[in-house]
Amino acid sequence: QAFFCLLLCVPWGSSCPPSCQCTERAGAKAVVCSSRHLEEIPEDIPRDAVFLKLDTNSITRIPGDAFRHLSLLEELDLSRNAIEQIEAAAFRGVAARLRTLDLSGNRIRSIPQEGLLGLVGKPLLQVLDAGVDLCGARRGTPDVAVLVTMFGWFAMVIGYLICYVRHNQEDACKRMDYLRALPGTQGHAD
After folding, report:
1. Contacts by 119-127 with C-beta closer than 8 Å and gap 24+?
2. 179, CA 20 to 30 Å: which among 14, 112, 160, 173?
3. LRRNT domain location, by residue (predicted)?
4. Which residue has the higher pLDDT, 169 or 51?
5. How many CB atoms lie within 10 A of CB 33?
6. By three-state DSSP, how is residue 51 classified?
7. Are residues 130 and 150 in the same domain?
8. What is the pLDDT of residues 97-133, one digit of tens each?
9. CATH number at residue 26
């Protein structure tokens, strides 16, 4: 009986991974593992974690079921890592409450449709199924910025040339008028 009571009284999943900092505020547990040189997602993240920050590490992949035991998770920050691969069902188990997922600043080239199962709604899965490359769209953003900048410079150069030609045209007209006014050049100016 004592052993059974001990099992019931031990707060399972509430210990903090050694490479992280755990805090609790108003009943919400935050697990911060930022800038800890982690190469993989820690397996011993407390089950009652609501906020999880794994940003600025060296994580290269998100394995399947990586967060399956974190059903209370609302915010997940995986930004500024080296993530290249997201395996099937990587986010299974967190779909019910997850409000924020930050994957920015990684090396993700594609996300398998199965990697997002249980995390996103059917409309996004239909977009992915249609072959839309969301990562490619992001890559195009600098191209648009370069085109806008080039257009701005081109418009500025054209504007400068128009002003230059008009100014020189006025000077040329003034010189022609001056030459016509000189004695003895009236026959040559025409």
Report:
1. 119/91, 119/92, 119/94, 119/95
2. 160
3. 15-51
4. 51
5. 23
6. strand
7. no
8. 888 899 999 998 878 777 666 665 544 544 455 444 5
9. 3.80.10.10
In whole angstroms, give the CA distance from residue 36 to residue 98: 24
**Domain range spanning residue 170?**
142-178
Is residue 129 domain-shared with residue 152, that is, in the same domain? no
Q: Which amino acid is at 117?
A: L
Give the H/E segment covering residue 101.
strand 100-102
Examine residue 50 and state whether it is found in any structural domain, yes or no: yes
The one-letter code for the residue type at 30 is A
User: 151 or 139: whose pLDDT is higher?
Assistant: 151
Looking at the domain assignment, is residue 188 inside a domain? no
> Distance (Å, rounded) from C-alpha 29 to C-alpha 16?
10
Reported pTM: 0.58
In angstroms, the CA 118 to CA 125 distance is 10
**Distance of alpha carbon 173 from alpha carbon 85, whole angstroms:** 69
Q: Are 86 and 117 in the same domain?
A: yes
- Asked whether residue 190 is assigned to any structural domain, the reply reads no
Most confident of 14-23, 78-87, 116-125: 78-87
